[in-house]
Amino acid sequence: MKKKIFIDSDIILDLLLERKPFFSPSAELFNLIEDKKIHASVSALHFSNLFYIIRKVKGKESAKTVLRKLKILVKVLSVDEKVIELALESDFSDFEDAIQYYACLDNKIDVIITRNKGDFRNSKLPVMTAEEFIAVLKLKD
To answer: What is the pLDDT confidence band of residue 141, given thresholds at 50, 70 and 90?
Structure first.
């Protein structure tokens, strides 16, 4: 069975903005997604946050173009009343991370992929960097 991963926005920005030294692992992760070796998800929150950042760097139309491509590759997890309630009652220090975490739980995600593992220190799900996740996949091959 293919792993269901959640990709935090920092990993996506590393790819889209070619941020060094993080670009290579994020590109390798997205190659695995394109090759349908893993199922990837993002939160609905990602789109407004990513649009804001990418628009500032690459312009409005370019931001929309890359987000359209992203939407094809990943499943967009809903943020509903239940997720918001759980996030409000959680002990996460960052509310956005709490929303994303509970959206992951609600959708039975296997692993959260982020560069900021400390943001998810209260997670009951495994939390890995892109490099760590790719290394684990290579060990299983």
So the answer is: low
Q: Is 57 strand, coil or helix?
A: helix
> What are the beta bridge partners of residue 128?
113
- State how far the Cα of 129 lies from the Cα of 28, in Å rounded to an integer: 12
Selection from 114, 115, 96, 100 nearest residue 42 by Cα: 100
Q: How far apart are CA 37 and CA 4, in angstroms?
A: 10
d(CA 37, CA 23): 20
Quick check: helix, strand or coil at residue 39?
Answer: strand
Region 4-140: CATH code: 3.40.50.1010
Strand-pairing partners, residue 42, are 76
Note the pLDDT tens digit of each residue in 35-58.
999 999 999 999 999 999 999 999
Helix (H, G, I), strand (E, B) or coil at 37: coil
Where are the extended beta strands (E) located within the chain?
A: 4-7, 39-43, 75-77, 111-113, 127-128
